[in-house]
Amino acid sequence: MAEASTRPARSLREIPAGIWALGFVSMLMDVSSEMIHALLPVYLVTVLGTSMVTVGVIEGIAEATASITRIFSGALSDWLGKRKWLAALGYGLAALTKPIFPLAPTVGWLMAARFIDRIGKGIRGAPRDALVADIAPAHLRGASIGLRQSLDTVGAFVGPLIAIGLMWLTSDHFKAVFWFAVIPGFLSFALIAFAVREPARAKGLREVRNPISLSEIRNLGVAYWWVVTIASVFTLARFSEAFLILRAQNVGLPVTLTPAVLVLMNVVYAGAAYPAGVVSDRMDRTTVLAFGIVLLIFADLALALMPSIAGVALGIALWGLHMGFTQGLLAALVADTSPAELRGTAYGFFNLLCGIAMLAASVIAGALWDNAGPQGTFYAGAGFALMALAGLLTVRGRTKATAG
User: Fold this and answer.
1) Tally of CA atoms within 13 A in the half-sphere of 5 that contains its CB
2) Domain membership of residue 121 as a residue range
3) pLDDT of residue 11
């Protein structure tokens, strides 16, 4: 894996305006999405009577759908040499699907809504991530990606906060909250359409005719594929956050307050992502990533061994901290190790394989919960995280030798 630059960001003012704009676009869409996602698992189980396995399947299919779509949108952005309008198309589609959630009369409709919403996420994901990497100077890459992650995650806890307030005001009227979530979704699309400018394509970049051909896949390089492999194994330990919400309800948190789970997790995540990015610009990113994996192990153990609201709160906070120390770093490592003209494709493959792992992780988590209880789910998560850490420490030296 490529070594990080020794010229870290000294202040937020050094981050390009385009990174800020994309961060606010992500923030608004996350406000919209998380207002729904914070309540959806509880709505499925308590109102529609679905099983935990069904929740796991819905969440896993939703994320896998987004990941599969990303490979094609990322490759298309490399072929076109343009990324902004593909990202805008994805945000627009996600905004248009938000009204389906309050209108859905059955689980099937909700599955369709999640499926279409995640197609929108898939279309925008790889082009947007590549656009961030294109805009960010190399010596500010970790800080820039970390800042976008932080702003994105601010939306992820503001959304549940709004959901809590609206659930209280409406006496737990789920559909009223889902309707309110439509507004920030459309604002997000308007912002990317009118406020984000795509930089001109850098001179000297090779034209890519078929980004997903075998020869171009080889051009991504060995170091890049090590990053993807490590990230895929790690994702097996990162099942859907829906199980954090259900664990909190399991230990006695009232339904009205269940969105507080995502609030706590994302407050910690948002606070950690930018500093973690800055630190990764100062030192080897894999060291920071290993620390993040250790945090996930402790989070899973707390959630398994401390069946109280305080214990679950500790586990959720550690979960958010691990997100801050891993997600932006993995995105930065993809940019570090892939050619600039293939960044969209690189993020597409990265998210495809991680999405497959997320599908498997969420289904396994749901099955374990139904058959071995919540402790079984979180013990398994800790075990997969240990495997990912061992793999990272083993591969780290080989990757450096290959990259060097």
Assistant:
1) 14
2) 17-197+215-403
3) 65
Question: Do 403 and 1 form a contact (C-beta atoms < 8 A)?
Answer: yes
CB pairs under 8 A, 24+ apart, for 130-133?
130/74, 130/77, 130/78, 130/83, 130/343, 130/344, 130/346, 130/347, 131/18, 131/22, 131/83, 131/84, 131/87, 131/198, 132/19, 132/22, 133/335, 133/340, 133/343
Alpha-carbon gap, residue 11 to 329, rounded angstroms: 19
- As a whole-number percent, the residues of the chain with pLDDT over 90 amount to 41
Q: Is residue 36, in this structure, part of any structural domain at all? A: yes
Q: Please state at what angle helix 17-37 crosses helix 182-195, rounded to 10 degrees.
A: 160
Please tell me the total count of domains within the chain: 1
| Burial of residue 195 (number of CB atoms within 10 Å: 0-12, 13-18, 19+) | middle
Q: Measuring CA to CA, which residue among 66, 190, 153, 47 is closest to residue 116?
A: 66
User: Tokens 């939703």 identify what position?
Assistant: 62
Find the CATH number of the domain harbouring 298: 1.20.1250.20
Interatomic CA distance for residues 362 and 242, integer angstroms: 9
Are the beta carbons of 228 and 345 closer than 8 angstroms? no
Is residue 78 in a domain? Answer: yes
Q: 75 to each of 72, 228, 349, how far by Cα in Å?
A: 5, 16, 9
Residue 52's pLDDT is what?
A: 67
List the structure tokens of 139. Answer: 């010596």
pLDDT tens, residue by residue, 80-100: 988 999 999 999 999 998 998
Query: Distance between CA 208 and CA 130 in Å, rounded?
Result: 15
Q: Are 119 and 69 in contact (CB under 8 A)?
A: yes
H helix or E strand, kind and range, residue 129: helix 107-135
pTM: 0.81
